[in-house]
From TrEMBL:
<dbReference type="InterPro" id="IPR052759">
    <property type="entry name" value="Metalloprotease_M4"/>
</dbReference>
<dbReference type="GO" id="GO:0005576">
    <property type="term" value="C:extracellular region"/>
</dbReference>
<dbReference type="GO" id="GO:0046872">
    <property type="term" value="F:metal ion binding"/>
</dbReference>
<keyword id="KW-0482">Metalloprotease</keyword>
<keyword id="KW-0378">Hydrolase</keyword>
<dbReference type="InterPro" id="IPR027268">
    <property type="entry name" value="Peptidase_M4/M1_CTD_sf"/>
</dbReference>
<feature type="domain" description="Peptidase M4">
    <location>
        <begin position="16"/>
        <end position="99"/>
    </location>
</feature>
<dbReference type="Pfam" id="PF02868">
    <property type="entry name" value="Peptidase_M4_C"/>
</dbReference>
<dbReference type="InterPro" id="IPR023612">
    <property type="entry name" value="Peptidase_M4"/>
</dbReference>
<comment type="similarity">
    <text>Belongs to the peptidase M4 family.</text>
</comment>
<feature type="active site" description="Proton donor">
    <location>
        <position position="193"/>
    </location>
</feature>
<dbReference type="GO" id="GO:0006508">
    <property type="term" value="P:proteolysis"/>
</dbReference>
<dbReference type="GO" id="GO:0004222">
    <property type="term" value="F:metalloendopeptidase activity"/>
</dbReference>
<dbReference type="Pfam" id="PF01447">
    <property type="entry name" value="Peptidase_M4"/>
</dbReference>
<feature type="active site">
    <location>
        <position position="92"/>
    </location>
</feature>
<protein>
    <recommendedName>
        <fullName>Neutral metalloproteinase</fullName>
        <ecNumber>3.4.24.-</ecNumber>
    </recommendedName>
</protein>
<keyword id="KW-0645">Protease</keyword>
Length: 272
């Protein structure tokens, strides 16, 4: 990326809001992965976390380019700056973690799982940073990302997929929260940002049934499943569901954790 270094590790705030948010939230993401999962950065080997801000002109996105984070400023009409939401930063960095652990193909159900895992770790970054329990957490992704012009509470809702926005210009949040509403489409790589609502809701249901802090048990189960050799690059929802049930039993035995995970996937129609 072209540009100049405006804030290195350990340096004071710059007064550039996007730069200071990027710095804080890259740090918060590092903290979740290190303090909770003992993972030393994205690659598990201390990869420096670099972010470029003010990318392009009114650029309406943020992404992990395989080596670093890139943040746009948004157009100011629909989107605010993309550093505004801690879970969006966590989501994009989580794509880096996912890329290092598995190559979940970015289409159809495996792609929707890829998107959902990024939301799961994105919301865990947010919850861990705020020290919110499963009851205190809002389970929304991207609060603040839309401007006040848009009729929206967030970009996505893990608790109630499909309820994040309903706006005359943008339309309605298209996410389903149950397999009966699975969207078959060729758009969006087969609906990777749409059908991710289903595994997102499964995580929400499992986490709230287990209770406490989501990063402690349900987050641990999802993380171990992500790192498990049994997660194929073509995994579909039901294969991932079975893996999380197995991991829950491996970590906590046959008890409330395993039962809650299993029931969550039943409740979203992924397993019978
Ligand atoms: Zn994503």
């Amino acid at each position: 990326m072209p540009g100049r270094l405006i804030r290195a590790e350990g340096q004071a705030t710059t007064g550039d809001v996007a730069a200071d948010e990027a710095y804080a939230y890259l740090g918060a993401t590092y903290e979740l992965f290190w303090e909770v999962f003992q993972r030393h950065s994205i690659d598990g080997a201390g990869l420096p976390l670099i972010g470029t801000v003010h990318y392009g002109q009114n650029y309406e996105n943020a992404f992990w380019n395989g080596e670093q984070m890139v943040f746009g400023d948004g157009d100011g009409e629909i989107f605010n700056r993309f550093t505004i939401a801690i879970d969006i930063v966590g989501h994009e960095l989580a794509h880096g973690v996912i890329e290092h652990e598995t190559s979940l193909a970015y289409k159809g159900q495996s792609g929707a799982l890829n998107e959902s895992l990024a939301d799961v770790f994105g919301t865990l970054v947010k919850q861990y940073h705020a020290k919110h329990s499963v009851e205190q957490a809002d389970w929304l992704i991207g609060v603040g990302l839309f401007t006040d012009e848009v009729k929206a509470t967030a970009l996505r809702s893990m608790k109630a997929p499909g309820s994040a926005y309903d706006d005359p210009a943008l339309g309605k949040d298209p996410q389903p929260g149950h397999m009966r509403d699975y969207v078959d489409t060729t758009e969006d790589n087969g609906g990777v940002h749409i059908n991710s609502g289903i595994p997102n809701r499964a995580f929400y249901l499992a986490a709230t049934a287990i209770g406490g802090y989501a990063w402690e048990k349900s987050g641990r189960i999802w993380y171990e499943a992500l790192c498990d050799e049994g997660l194929w690059d073509t995994a579909d929802f039901s294969q991932f569901a079975a893996l999380t049930v197995d991991v829950a039993e491996r970590l906590y035995g046959v008890g409330v954790e395993q039962q809650s995970v299993r029931q969550a996937w039943v409740d979203v129609g992924v397993i019978a």
